[in-house]
Design a protein that fits this description.
With 338 residues, the chain is of the alpha+beta class. The protein has twelve helices and ten strands. The strands form three sheets. Strands 7-3-10-9-8 form a five-stranded antiparallel beta sheet, with helices on both faces. A three-stranded antiparallel beta sheet has the order 4-5-6. Helix 1 crosses helix 4 and helix 6 packs antiparallel against helix 12 (317-337).
Length: 338
């Protein structure tokens, strides 16, 4: 275990390096921070931190910079989440309150996160498997053609065209719509297959084929890989950090183009808490020079998706964590009120 003083020295090194982009020396540390000890003592503490792998010397006669291990300890023990100021919170709320639908909520969230953190923002669309049915609408487009519209509690809307095996009248369609909603409205998507399995049995024999076709389309919509959708923004922010990527920024950009990689980076939605993955903790090699800060968002205290940012390991962790958490909270409120 590191002594309290050495933890303070590590905190000071991380803060100075993030702020100045320059390796940090013992003289600068004692001048900028009230550590209460001599430069010689700070040098000894820095030597011990380096021996234990928390800081490193990028080149001879330079100061020290934090390693992935050093940032990890900083995030776990030394960094409080920086709260947003009242004007910042109002700005977030005003910006997100103007959204007109779910796509607009996600697009605004991406732009907002990228602006607040000056990193790359990633927002996953709400997962259908963790959503609730708000309403199923059935619209007649032709005697044997129907549009199915599925509306979720998160404001997500899915539409499907259905070619029916036989003409289906408006009265029968209204009857199916009413019976269907009486069973599934307000219920979890995962419960729907069981709730509708015998629904067709209650219709006249000549209508059962069409009812079964509509139900099959509904069930297909529920199980499609819709959670594979996400939106990304602020990629140009990475160009400000060119020197933070040891070789080239290209592997990072290539990784950001892979949706599967990004979904894995955000982590499992079942774990809604704040997650910070630093450097080599990211399994994808192209992102070993980055950190990912993510958190779940949703309504009613349950996460339906995740959002977060990707940036260099030399990031303002307290500020980034505070921004990500605040934005997730407001998005959850909007979904709950939508």
């Amino acid at each position: 275990m590191l002594s309290e003083r050495r933890l303070q020295v590590l905190r000071a090194i991380v803060q100075d390096y993030v702020g100045t982009e320059e390796p940090v020396g013992s003289k600068a540390l004692t001048e900028r921070h009230s550590l209460g000890v001599s430069p010689a003592t700070v040098r000894n503490d820095m030597a011990a931190l380096e021996d234990e792998g928390y800081i490193a010397q990028p080149h001879t006669s330079a100061g020290r910079i934090p390693t992935d291990k050093g940032y990890r300890l900083f995030v776990d023990k030394l960094a409080g989440v920086k709260p947003m100021t009242a004007p910042e919170r109002r700005a977030i709320q005003n910006f997100l309150d103007g959204a007109v639908d779910l796509d607009d909520v996600v697009a605004r969230t991406v732009r907002l996160l990228a602006q607040l953190t000056r990193q790359v923002a990633v927002v996953q669309y709400p997962s259908l498997t963790r959503s609730t049915v708000r309403h199923v609408e059935l619209l007649s487009l032709a005697p044997a053609r129907v549009m199915l519209v599925l509306i979720t509690d998160t404001g997500r809307v899915e539409q499907r065209m259905i070619d029916c095996p036989a003409p289906f009248g408006e009265t029968s369609l209204a009857d199916l719509r009413a019976r269907l909603n009486s069973r599934v409205a307000g219920r979890r998507f995962t419960d729907v297959p069981q709730l509708v399995e015998d629904l067709a049995d209650g219709f006249d024999p000549e209508d059962r084929g069409t009812v079964s076709t509509v139900l099959s389309t509904l069930l297909e919509t529920l199980v499609e890989e819709n959670e594979e959708r996400l939106m990304i923004g602020g990629t140009a922010n990475l160009t400000r950090f060119g020197h933070d990527f040891p070789l080239t920024i290209r592997p990072v950009l290539e990784a950001l183009e892979e949706q599967v990689v990004l979904l894995k980076l955000l982590g499992e939605t079942q774990d809604p808490g704040m997650t910070v993955r630093i450097g080599h903790e990211n399994a994808y090699e192209g992102l070993n020079s980055t950190s990912v800060v993510s958190v779940g968002y949703g309504s009613g205290g349950e996460a339906v998706a995740k959002l977060g940012v990707v940036g260099p390991t030399r990031m303002d962790y307290p500020g980034t964590m505070g921004a990500v958490r605040a934005v997730a909270r407001y998005v959850g409120q909007i979904l709950a009120e939508s």
